[in-house]
Specification:
By secondary structure, this protein is α+β, with helices and mostly antiparallel strands. 27% of the residues lie in helices and 35% in strands. The strands form two sheets. It has a five-stranded mixed beta sheet with strand order 4-8-7-6-5, with helices on both faces. Strands 1-2-3 form a three-stranded antiparallel beta sheet, with no helix packed on it. The radius of gyration is 17 Å and the shape is elongated. The structure holds zinc ion (2 copies).
Length: 157
């Protein structure tokens, strides 16, 4: 159901803006626009399809976060993310992209990860790309599809 924000006039459907008001004092700017989510989802598909790390980097906020503060390999910038991904590729880790979905929190990518030692088999990983102001501001990994889907559906406040 599409609702109109009574304050500013944005059209909002389940926490995603489908039309943006012309109000300088827009009170819905914390909600992603459908257009931005679709653009980022397409960017993720292209970047993974072509293993284009620079292309992926261009979707990220400059101060993008990946990993908790106490994680040894935490990322706090685009360069951190690119070097982490490059390191994984160099170690022979490969990932193929399953479905990519959008929701109020951002973009969810299903990754099927294969280690360099293929005898370890594949592993399903779900990456939530949290979107703020049209860029990916945080990468949150989930091993459970249900947990990832719940996080994707959470409406930013
Ligand atoms: Zn607005
Ligand atoms: Zn509003």
């Amino acid at each position: 159901m599409v609702t109109t924000c009574a304050e500013c006039g944005c059209l909002v459907e389940r926490g995603v803006r489908v039309a943006v008001c012309a109000d300088d004092a827009c009170c819905c700017s914390h909600l992603s626009t459908r257009e931005a989510l679709e653009r980022l989802a397409e960017g993720v598909r292209m970047a993974f399809g072509e293993t284009d790390l620079e292309g992926f980097s261009s979707l990220l906020a400059p101060d993008v976060r990946w990993g908790d503060d106490d994680a040894p390999n935490r990322c706090r910038s685009r360069d951190d993310v690119v070097s982490t991904l490059r390191g994984a590729l160099e170690r022979g880790v490969s990932g193929s992209l399953g479905e990519v979905e959008t929701g109020p929190a951002g973009v969810l990518a299903h990754l099927v990860v294969t280690r360099s030692d293929a005898s370890e088999g594949t592993r399903d990983l779900f990456h939530l790309y949290v979107v703020r102001e049209g860029r990916i501001s945080e990468i949150v990994p989930y091993s459970s599809r249900a947990d990832a889907a719940a996080a994707l559906a959470a409406i930013p406040t």
